Structures are given as structure tokens and as C-alpha cells.
Please model this.
Amino acid sequence: MRKMGGGAGGGAGGAGGIFNIGKSKATLFDKGTKVNITFADVAGLDEAKVEVMEIVDFLKNPKKYTNLGGKIPKGALLVGPPGTGKTLLAKAVAGEAQVPFFSLSGSDFVEMFVGVGASRVRDLFKQAREKAPCIIFIDEIDAIGRARGKNAMMSNDERESTLNQLLVEMDGFGTDVGIIVVAATNRPDVLDTALLRPGRFDRQITIDKPDLVGREAIFKVHLKPIKISKTLDIHKLAEQTPGFAGADIANVCNEAALIAARKNKEAVDMQDFQDAVDRVIGGLEKKNKIISPEEKKIIAFHEAGHAVCGWYLEHAYPLLKVTIVPRGSAALGYAQYTPKEQYLYNIDQLTDQICMTLGGRASEEIFFNKISTGAQNDLQQITRTAYAMVTVYGMSDKLGNISYYDPQQENSFSKPYSDETARMIDDEVRKLIEDAYIKTKELLKEKKEEVEKIATALLEREVLFQSDVEALIGKRPFEEKKPLVDDVVAEVSDAETIVTEPKKEDDKSTDEQTGNIGLAPSV
Ligand code: ADP
Ligand code: ZN
Model:
């Protein structure tokens, strides 16, 4: 799903052969050609488009920014699963700004000969400098940018020298040169932190798999060149393709046209598309990428559980949206909240937060009488919060106002308390979580109808915003309240370090009931 190779194709062995191997050749990247792809070719991805719009503006009017003393960013990182349009979006940026586009994949840098990667990086930037302003697109940057010592595939020396060269090049040009490096990855978590420092890839733009509306829009883009029958129901096609990335949809459209041609049809009809969908699903199923209808139902009730808990718990954060569109490689769905900017949390807020986070599992148990591995991430979160409540914030009656947290003490092996206290801590944490789980289940049993309504709507529409939820189950019965200073429980600094606090909107996963850590996908 990477590199749409502008006809250049072929391997690295081309014209120059082995003697020329260090030079990045036209066979390696689309050689700074002008692209004619624009934002109109990219369906959906509205938020990402807004973010990259700024890059377009930088490239078009650099003076506007540098005159005021501002520094133009050098790099942006597009994060998302394969086939979701990262390359396409980067190309559209170049197209909109009318600048040349250089592209190369991280794995292209990495050859068996030591020193080749670094030399290719140098050559790439040299050519780019000659054509600036321009975009350099590096796909699969994790192939070179992995944190040192994490990959056995390639000799560390080679990867490190390639990575170092990339850092040198990025630091080496002033922001007024007009080279913007856009990189793509599905694994931001494995990247070397050096890459993410200011002045390098300091912007991250998340690109998710498309939801129902997004898929319909993508279908429309790819149906344009196809002769379709008048009876084609595009909405229905979008409904039948949950979990499909843009590339899969492009694939479906192409397959459908081929199937219809084979049957000598005048126009491509619904049946052809359905056959094409089946065929593509077959391929995806083999790769284990499709969520079965049963799983989808469990995910819907899990997320509905989070949403309903948050709705009816007074101190929980207000819900922003809830969705069953898979996100990244690990999350099968998520409920997103708008955390208030606050530094101090009282016990009610933390308890409600725990209940809300348990809402997913509780809902699974109530509706399916069975629990899944999907709550793994939720459980990690609440365990952390509960331990912090007991051992850091002195919120347990049994242990009293004692904080065992010592910021200087990094080594957790030397605990500042006895074994007996340790047992007490464990008991208190367990009790706290147990009580919260009971409370959560009671709430959800009482609100069974509401959970069902939201889960059903999620299965239909995949994404529900706050207003949709309101339309389904009525207004949230609480006024927005400011935290009472009297209720405060912790010093500002501690609150920041320990509890899984909310962060800014653009911060990756802490503001949601998900994250990317873990073994099995979470919901
Ligand atoms: P990625 O770089 O994220 O792996 P690509 O940008 O290479 O994905 O996408 C592959 C193809 O899938 C694109 O060339 C395009 O045909 C199609 N595609 C993906 N996302 C979209 C989208 N949002 N709108 C239209 N087409 C898309
Ligand atoms: Zn969950």
C-alpha cells in the first residue's frame, strides 16, 4: 500500500547496477516530479487535512511565517495503519503547494551493504535541496527510525548510521530552505525519540481507518472513472465494508470493474461490487484483518458500556465521541472524552473514572455473560489509578494519610513499607476496584435499555458524537461543575506524575479508554 511508483517501478539493480548502489536513483524514488494530486482526491480525513493545510501554506508563503521570526516545521509524522491514505495525503500536500515530491520507503534505505543507507539519505537530500521548496516523503520510517537496539533484522550499525545521517540532514538545513519531510508509520511507539525532538518530526498527525461516512466518500472518489449502473447503492457498499482502509476500497472498485468486464457488461452493477467485496474480504480474512460480526457486536456493547457509564456518572468526563471503528493496530474501538484542564482530582472523580473505564467489561458481562480480552487496556489503567489512590494520595481509610510515593526513588524493589503493609495495599486496591465494578454493573443493569440503544446505533452508524447520544438517551443529567478546591487531594506535581491524567487533545491515547500497549487488541 505504499509508494504509488510513478511508472518508475523496478528494483535497485537498474541502470547503474552494483557500482552505483549508494546513489539514490530514479528507480528508488519518484524523482521530484510535480504531482497533480490534490485534496479533492483524498476523501474524508478532514482533521488530517486541516493539519497539513498549514504545511501547504508554509511551502507557498514561507516569508509570511519567517518574516515574523517564526520557524517553519521541518517534519511531520503521519501515523496510521497501511492503506489509509498517508502517501496519498503527502502527495496531495505537494500537489496543492505545487512543489516537487520525493518519496522513498524506509526499507529502501536499508540494504545489505554497510554505508549504503546513509549515502542514500545524503543523496536524497542533495537532490531535494536543488529542487526546494519540495516535499520529501519517507514511508515506513520505522524501518530506519526504530529505537536503537530494538530490531534484530538489520545490523544495528547500518541502521544507526542511516538514522544518524537523516538526523544530520534534517538539522542541517535552515527552516527557510523549504524542504518539509513527511514520514509515515504505523508504529510511532518504536521510533527513536531523537526523531521526535523539536526541529525534526515534531508534529504527529493521526490517520484512522475510515468510518461509514468516510468509506462512502472514498467509494465516490474511486467510482468516478468507473461506468456504474444507475442502481448502484453506494451507501450500502460503505455499510458492507467495515474495517476497510481506503486502499481496500480502491481495490474493490477496481475488482468490480474487472468482474463486470469479464461478463461483458455495459456498466458495473451492485452484484459485481458485492462479488468484489467478497473477494477482497477473502484476502483480508486470510491476513486476519477483518472483524467478525459477533466480535463487532461485543465491541459495540463494550463501548456502549463506557459511554453510558460516563453519561450517568456525575464526576466522569463528558463524552466526546464513541466509535467501533478500529484505531491503529491495537484498539478495536474507543470512547473519547474531553478531559477538563485540571490539576487536582477528588476521590469522587477518580472513582467515577474507574467505574467508567470498567463499563466496557461490565457491559460485556451483563449482555453476553462472558468477558473478553478486550478490556485489557482498561484494566491496566484502572489498576494504575487505584494503586495511586491508595499508595500516593492517601485515599484509603485503612492506610490513612500516608503517601508511599517518593519521586527520588526510582527503584521499586526497595519499597518503603513492610510486607504486611504491602498486603494491605493490595487488599485495599482490590476492594476499591471490586466496589467500583459492583457499582458499575448496578448502574448498567439499571440503564440496560440505554446501553442497548447506543450499541444498536453503533452497529448501524459506527460513530456517535455527544449530540447523537443525547438524541438517543436524552441529556446528561448533570450540570458542568468546576472542581471544588476543598475537595483537593494532591499536590499538583504528584497529580501529574502518577495518575493516568488527561492530557491535551492531541496527545495520543491518554484521553481515551484505549492505548496501544498490550498483547491483544483492546476496546
Ligand atoms: P498508506 O500510505 O497509508 O499505506 P496510500 O496512500 O498508499 O496508503 O493509499 C493507497 C491507495 O488507497 C491510494 O492510492 C488511494 O487509491 C486509496 N486511498 C487510501 N485512502 C484514501 C482516501 N482517504 N481517499 C481516497 N483514496 C484513498
Ligand atoms: Zn474499553
Q: What stands out?
A: Residues 302, 306, 360, 375, 378, 513, 523 surround zinc ion (ligand 2) (CB under 6 Å). The chain has three domains: 2-206, 212-282, 293-518. The chain has a mean pLDDT of 78.
